[in-house]
Write a structure and sequence with these properties.
By secondary structure, the chain is an alpha+beta fold. The longest helix is centred in the C-terminal third of the chain and has 18 residues. About 45% of the residues lie in helices and about 20% in strands.
Length: about 150
């Protein structure tokens, strides 16, 4: 079994985390998913990560070699990110934003309408609509992706 430190370093170099929009529901409401992808031309490390955290591996045709992509969604993605967060260097801020998003998303919808979002802790009174918070978290994630590393926004 690979260490969490190794997994964090591997993810820092070969992975990405995103909050992705899903297709709108029948009533026109759009929701989002937490997605983690790790790609490499060698499959053994991806298989070890998959054995512990789940997910699906797809094979893409590369220029010279096939590229294997491990895709973790929602709870599996959150478990993986929570496990490697203390050891990540390059993508630590992106991971933090993703985990804040996941904590918000896990609150029951009835509570989301009344909670105040301040980092990871639901409070008593809501100051913003849940959709606004999701958009802000998605924007914050995009800023970290564009910056590419760990300097603060």
């Amino acid at each position: 079994m690979l260490s969490l430190e190794y997994n964090a370093g591997f993810f820092d170099g070969e992975g990405c985390v995103a909050i992705c929009a899903r297709k709108p529901h029948a009533r026109g409401q759009q929701s989002t998913n937490l997605d983690v992808r790790v790609a490499n031309t060698e499959i053994p490390v991806l298989l070890e990560i998959q054995a512990v955290f789940g997910g699906a591996i797809r094979t893409l045709k590369g220029h010279h070699k096939p590229v294997y992509v491990l895709h973790l969604r929602e709870a599996a993605a959150a478990r993986f990110l929570q496990a490697i967060a203390p050891h990540s260097v390059v993508k630590s801020e992106q991971i933090q934003v993703a985990l804040e998003y996941w904590a918000f998303k896990q609150a029951p919808k009835s509570e989301r309408c009344y909670m105040k979002y301040n980092g990871n802790s639901p409070g008593a009174q809501m100051t913003k609509k849940p959709e606004t918070i999701e958009k802000e978290l998605n924007f914050n994630m995009a800023l970290h992706v564009l910056k590419g590393s760990s300097s603060s926004v």
